[in-house]
Amino acid sequence: MASTFLLFQLASIAALIGMTLGWRGVMTKYSGFYDLPTAWSNVFWGILLGGVYGRLVHDAVITPYLSMFLDDSQEVVNPLNVVLLGILASVAVHLLLRRNRVRKGSSQTTSGWALGLAVGGMISMIMIYKTLEVKDIFSFNEVELMVTITGISIFSPRCEALISSYHGHLMLRGKRWGAVLRSSFWRCAYMVMFPFAMINPLAWIFIIPITLIFTRNSNNWIWESIPSEGKKRLRKIWARQARIRKENINSANKISQFDDSSE
Predict the structure, then answer these.
(1) d(C-alpha 89, C-alpha 191), whole Å
(2) Separation CA 175–CA 173 (nearest Å)
């Protein structure tokens, strides 16, 4: 019991760290220019959705996938389960982003990011726990185990956040069915790649570049959701911060030159 509790604690801490990094990476950049209370409410809904969705993924995808390597007679994961879960999760996200509270402030993109972070955090907790549970069976060394846990904790919440934020971005552009279909496709890819990454660190060669590319695009999605007046204010704030940084650098250089000349 103590061992199981310890594994759960480690998995929970790693997942929370990944969620925090995902929030700081994007949401803090535009802090004050989106509906923060609505975003936080979607974190709550994401935890609930992620708990149900994560359990279904565990039973229908992760456990059969690991069993396939442990037992040669085990059948492969049913692709229909992957597709069905991807569609159900995307429909659930769509319904949550269609609420009046979200649509009133046109905050589908930022609310989608918060929602996806919570969903991805719950799934990453399950995958990390399962990885720690089977580490001796698959004979992971310390480096492989550390790479796997770090990768899941950081990239699993961020990937779900990217999918849900992109879903919200498409909703703002009026592509409702397109949002559901495209996010379903990426969730299916998510359910294929991350269980594979649990037992093979080489999977990160494919996951990390794609995540970094779409993270750059996510700034454009959130920027487009900000009202024009807010964009003007944000540009002024960024320009003022850039001037302050430049002045600090110039002051530091002058002090350094003065010290050199005095010597």
Answers:
(1) 12
(2) 6
Please, what sign has the CA dihedral across residues 178, 183, 186, 192?
A: negative
Cα separation, 196 vs 205, whole angstroms: 12
Which token pair is 73?
A: 């007679």
Instruction: Report percent pLDDT > 70 for the chain.
Output: 86
Q: What is the rounded distance in angstroms from the CA atom of residue 20 to the CA atom of residue 25?
A: 9
The contacts of residue 203 (CB under 8 Å, 6+ apart) are 193, 194, 196, 197
User: CA 15, CA 122: separation in Å to the nearest integer?
Assistant: 7
Q: Are 180 and 125 in contact (CB under 8 A)?
A: no
Q: Please give the structure tokens belonging to residue 254.
A: 């002058």
| pTM of structure | 0.85
List of residues 6+ apart from 81 with CB closer than 8 A: 60, 61
Q: What is the pLDDT of residues 117-144, one digit of tens each?
A: 999 999 999 999 988 887 766 677 788 8
Q: Are 74 and 68 in contact (CB under 8 A)?
A: yes
Contact 81/60 with Cβ under 8 angstroms?
yes
